[in-house]
Design goal:
Elements (H helix, E strand, L loop, with lengths): L2 H25 L7 H33 L21 H30 L10 E8 L2 E5 L5 E3 L6 E4 L3 E8 L4 E5 L4 E5 L5 E6 L4 E7 L11 E7 L1 H8 L5
Parallel strand pairs: 1-5, 4-10
Antiparallel strand pairs: 1-2, 2-3, 5-8, 6-7, 6-9, 9-10
Helix pairs in contact: 2-3
Bound molecules: copper (II) ion.
Copper (II) ion binds next to loops.
Length: about 240
């Protein structure tokens, strides 16, 4: 086996293994929860699926070019020399139209998702409320509408009721931070002097990690917190001053 064949076979095995690992991983589930995860993961799957199909197509074409014998007509080509034959126009048009269609579908789905993420007022209900979240080096300050206020440094979780859309107004008291709930697929930048808005609608009770997604200093990696999604009754009891 010459070096070229060995290279082609090794690269093929690596690329196929990575592709199958990625497909396998996708079937294991993406680990999201809540209303945003459905929208986001659908979008991810669309981009990932198209990327995989196009990537495999390009790779198979590349392999075919590498492994088929040239017909001899192009053997004396020099670098910089323009080929006389410019290929088939119909193929070029076909590829252009397919790419244009892909881009149209992707833009449409992407803008719909952005609307969903940004226009919380279209999803909030009478039960909804807004939590003001301020980032500091290296904790989060939470302020509820009824005056309840505490920080993540105390170890207390951010509490929200299940199935209720909750709005976050996020800002920072010092440097740039970013308030992120990875499982709920939201990340709101915390910028001093500016309020950014996000929202979630949790669909399962439980606790989930809160992370800072903006490198904000030497303790950035430990700027973590907890989100606790509670049953509505438990939340109401806690919120009205009882103990849940
Ligand atoms: Cu931070």
């Amino acid at each position: 086996m010459d070096r070229r064949t060995f290279g082609i076979i090794s690269a093929s095995i690596v690329i196929l293994a990575l592709t199958f690992a990625s497909i396998f991983n996708w079937f294991q589930g993406l680990g999201g929860t809540g209303a945003h995860a459905e929208v986001y993961d659908e979008l991810f799957t669309l981009y990932w699926g198209l990327g995989t199909v196009i990537g495999m197509g390009v790779y198979i074409y590349f392999l075919w070019l590498l492994t088929t014998e040239p017909d001899g007509s192009g053997d004396d080509m020099r670098i910089g020399q323009r080929p006389e034959e410019r290929g088939d126009n119909r193929v070029a048009w076909g590829i252009t139209i397919v790419i244009a269609l892909f881009l149209l579908v992707l833009s449409d789905v992407t803008f719909d998702s952005i609307d969903f993420f940004e226009k919380h007022e279209e999803h909030t209900t009478d039960d909804s409320f807004t939590v003001e979240i301020t980032g500091y080096q290296y904790y989060w300050d939470y302020q509820y509408p009824n005056g309840i206020s505490y920080t993540s440094a105390s170890g207390e979780p951010l509490r929200v009721p299940v199935d209720v859309p909750v709005v976050f107004e996020v800002t920072s008291g010092d440097v740039f931070h970013s308030y992120a709930l990875p499982e709920h697929r939201i990340k709101v930048d915390a910028i001093p002097g500016r309020v950014n808005t996000g929202w979630i609608q949790a669909e399962e009770t439980g606790t989930y990690p809160v992370r800072c997604f903006e490198l904000c200093g030497d303790e950035h990696t430990i700027m973590i917190g907890v989100l606790e999604v509670m049953e509505k009754d438990d939340f109401d009891m806690w919120y009205s001053g009882g103990v849940a």
